[in-house]
Amino acid sequence: MSRLNTKFADLKSQNKKALIPYVTAGDPFPEMTVPLLHAMVDAGSDIIEIGVPFSDPMADGPVIQQACERALLHNTSLTDVLAMVAEFRETNQDTPIVLMGYLNPVEVMGYKQFAEKASAAGVDGVLTVDLPPEEAEEFIRELDACQLDPVFLVSPESTVERFKLITKYSKGFLYYVSLKGVTGVKSIDTAVVASKLAELRDFTDLPVCVGFGIKDAETAATVSNFSNGVVVGSAIVNRIAEHQNDQHTIIAEVSHFLSGLRQAMDAV
Q: How confident is the model over 91-115, as a mean pLDDT?
């Protein structure tokens, strides 16, 4: 059983929902990333989503675009990201790690080599934003060979046929995009999201986690009522940007924010 499967099973047994923070690796500088990952776990995070910096993050809004720019100023590469995961795994063997990014860096490395290196580093799942499942069979074969879970996005405009296709190839969990557009720019209509998730559950037993637009404890708690977890990205990256020259303050601010989300979700 993968770390993701184990984590969701454990959370279900405790009647809890997954708190999944996102950070861009190398933002604001590479030495910051691993200590921040550990701090997020200590603050109550269940799974961590690590963004691989890319020069054209088309699904992301200005906040995460700028995080990629800060990371790339330090030449943070996919190889560096895998090294960060390996360092994190030296003292944490339990928290699942999902890489989120774009296909180009993976293609440059090569599907097989990427899958082998990611598995060796301790990665558990891979979400490639610009690789639709109908074009991903070769990549999925390499991930499967290394026991890595392919995670796919489900959009608000997905049809029944699309639901079936995405759930056919997905493992670990489904990432439901709560609104149209890029990350970090809108608030979500939780009633609409709840209705869509109810429809999606007709096609899969996989956990469904919701991201995009979750900015505060109240929204996280509401969404956790009808999902298996919440993904929080831009709200964290904003805090990193505000204090990018002060590692101590970044860790304190992000930890305080995540602790508040954890408490609100557990109180539901």
A: 97
